[in-house]
Amino acid sequence: MNLRTALFDCHVAAGGRMVPFGGWDMPLHYGSQLQEHHRVRAEAGVFDVSHMTIVDLEGRGAQAFLRHLLANDVARLTAPGSALYSCMLNEAGGILDDLIVYFRGEARYRLVVNAATRARDLAWIDSHRAVSAPEVALTHRADLAMLALQGPMAERVLAQVYPAATMTAVRALQAFQFLERPEGFIARTGYTGEDGFEIMLPAASAPAFWRALVAAGAAPCGLGARDTLRLEAGLALYGTDLDDAHTPAECGLAWTVVLTPPERGFIGRAALAAGTPRFRQVGLVLEERGVLRNGLAVRFADGAEGMITSGGFSPTLQRAIALARVPPAAAGQRQCEVLLRGQPVKAAVVKPPFVRHGQPCIALASR
């Protein structure tokens, strides 16, 4: 039996089509995935992301432990209220998960990791903590819910729910900053390519908060719109674009690996130093009619071949787009072919993102 978030009854009452996802019952859409997508690009939408795994780490050795555990360097988080994105690697340099780390101050950190990898992540983190940092306390915050309010009008919606004093602090937040208030843990982060907030609060308070956001103008949005929005934004999905058989550099995430200072011995560092990336990630835009799907073969004029890891139709661009894993030498080429039902169709090779803040980031050829 799948798990249910604190908002399950809200989703059902709103007409959400519930589907299994990562061991949870989650809303796919509330009638029109396309309308939900456009509402987030133009106004604001609210997503239930309570299936994500929230982990608190506290104790004198928390920073040193996370500097060993993660490929990005949490020492860069010098001010409480700041956050960063990182990969957690295995010894071979493969990506066990991608996550966000929040620095709460005084050796206190919060991690948000993916739902489908929850059991493995918790076991991995705890096993390494037990060996290298037993003084650090680990708490899986299953008592918290998490909502994502996303879109250019997200701040305006939130102002109808939060008191003025809280909104003054919220408006001052920059990207990847957060604050903690009695109303919740409010972070200016997201997964859509739009402005917005991810808010963690007690699960018991989540239904009333969700209803208040909807009453203030946020459209309920499901997994379908979440996927098309993140694909347009060029953001990777674990298990599709990222996995434990590929390194960050092979998945477009080399920028998340910090190699200085050289004495920081994070898990997977030696393997990254000894290896050469076998692939690169590129974006594709289909120049003919059709839909790009995960797993389709990509072929270049010199015979090099790759594979689409995430593909779909872009509601904003009205084109089929994709993220693809290709040989390094092919990443600089401008054209390729994708095999659709065995037939080659032309696609342009571009650098993601495709859409950011509601606007195209790439030039579109006429067709």
Question: Which key features would you list for this structure?
Answer:
22% helix, 2 domains, alpha+beta, 367 residues, 6-stranded mixed sheet, Gyrase A, domain 2, 6-stranded antiparallel beta barrel
Structure report:
The chain is of the alpha+beta class and 367 residues long. The protein folds into 2 domains: 275 residues, 2-Layer Sandwich (Gyrase A, domain 2); 82 residues, Elongation Factor Tu (Ef-tu), domain 3, CATH 2.40.30. The chain is built from 9 helices and 22 strands. The strands form 5 sheets. The protein has a 6-stranded mixed sheet with strand order 11-12-13-10-4-14. Strand 11 and strand 12 form a beta hairpin. Helix 2 packs across helix 8. The chain is globular, with a radius of gyration of 21 Å. The N and C termini lie far apart (47 Å).
Distance between the termini: 47 Å
Number of domains: 2
The DSSP helix count reads 9
Parts with pLDDT < 50 across at least 5 consecutive residues = none
Oligomer: single chain
Within CATH, the superfamily of the largest domain carries the name: Probable tRNA modification gtpase trme, domain 1
Morphology: globular
CATH class of the largest domain: Alpha Beta
Instruction: Briefly note the structural class of the backbone.
Output: alpha+beta
Q: If you consult CATH, what is the topology of the largest domain?
A: Gyrase A, domain 2
Q: What value does the average pLDDT take?
A: 97
Radius of gyration: 21 Å
Read across the widest sheet, the strand sequence of neighbours is 11-12-13-10-4-14
Percent helix among the residues?
Answer: 10-25%
The largest pleated sheet is described as:
6 strands, mixed
- CATH architecture field of the largest domain: 2-Layer Sandwich
Please give the number of β-strands. 22
